[in-house]
Amino acid sequence: MTSGFLIKDPRTRAGLRLDAAAGSQERLAFLNDASTRIGSTLDLAQTCREVLDVAVPRCADTGGIMVQERLITEGEFPVRPTDGSALVRRVATAVAVDNPWDWDTAFPVDEVAVYPPFLPQGQAMATARTVLVPRLDESVADEIAKAFGRDVIARSLAGCSFLVAPLLARGNVLGFFVLVRQPCSEPFQDGDVALVEELAARTAICIDNARLYARERRTALTLQSSLLPTGLNAPPGLEVAYRYLPAGDLAGVGGDWFDVIPLAADRTALVVGDVMGHGVRAAATMGQLRTATQTLASLDLDPAELLYRLNRVAQQLDLDQIATCAYARHDRTTGTVEIASAGHLPPMLVQPDGTADILAVTPGPPLGVGTDTFDLATFALPPGGLLALYTDGLVEGREWNIDEGLAKLRGLLTGPPLGIDRICDMIVRAQRPSTDRDDIALLLAKAR
Q1: Domain boundaries, the chain
Q2: Which residues of 204-214 are buried (b: 16+ CB within 10 A; e: fewer)?
Q3: In 3-state terms, the chain is what percent helix, strand and coil (to 5)?
Q4: What is the topology classification, in CATH, of domain 228-447?
Q5: Which residues form the GAF domain (predicted)?
Q6: Superfamily, domain 5-218
Q7: How do residues 85-141 score in pLDDT, each as one tens digit?
Q8: Which of 109, 162, 233, 379 could bond 133 through an S-S bridge, CB–CB 3.0 to 4.6 Å?
């Protein structure tokens, strides 16, 4: 289910309909089935689609879920609306009727609207209580159509039976869950209220969980992006390009970082690091380590000495997470690059003739682990040569292991010279796993 508008076969209504006379065992079986099918992900829109897929046509001919706009855009609980001013978004709609596209026109998904207090939807949100309308008068249907400026609404709703349940979580109204039965169907009865309220309660919990997840991921991404460089100036003797792609979910949003730091005497530091762990704490740790790296880089230390001191800083910070880091120092005058690694993946070097190799850099322990010194390796970086630094999200995923990923990256770097930005784009397109479960940082530096 990818669309917010679900069309169900109306011919299945008679066999599936759970009416007010259903026994307790049948209702319990329905709710158990709903529990297994609702909330399979922490995606709010997907959760709403799953709810309606369960409810239509089992409970109604059509249904919709409206969620307060501020909850979607900001992840915050809005004040309970009592004056009809609540701004809500239609997240999903499901229909099992003969004229489905009329309902799509009448109630389009993603529409943001206000429901006045005189409407059942507005009443449910204002009072935080379920509203049952056995049959909607034609005059009220006309008023709704006028309020939204669509005549098709009056044709679709006149004579229908309504059941509108507020979505309540933590004492707050998240929105409402509306079910509609057409004039040809039996109207809702008092016996239906308890069942729909139980379904609405479970829906609200799932929506609230999705809200919390989305807010934490948004916070982590905002923090992470604020701590990364927004633009890198071309250092002496180098052309640089980079790509940073956040993970597709909170479980992968972590602490990948990169930096290009000008040093004295035509030297430049190139840094890529990865904090282990995920979420806001990993992003905050990344910010601390990036700041410490920049401070130590101002001393123009060789990479091995810098990582030794950075490791001591990491231990003094008493961080819960450990991190890996590759630090390179390019010297324009000598045409060389010195590299040291704190548990990080090996850089790759592309020669001017297009031959790519994995550099033999001995990795020391990750930052925050042990007190060992780090080995320093020195390589020539001639004009036209290219150095590639990256994080494990680029070479490791469910589709391939890290050795296969390294081989693929080496193959992509091998070949005729291309523009450095074009190389970045080509690598990310080819190497990013389809699951997007980890951050990706890629930094390329080409000698002029």
Answers
A1: 5-218, 228-447
A2: bbbbbebbebb
A3: 40, 25, 35
A4: Phosphatase 2c; domain 1 (3.60.40)
A5: 33-217
A6: GAF domain (3.30.450.40)
A7: 789 999 999 999 999 999 999 999 999 999 888 888 999 999 999 999 999 999 889
A8: 162
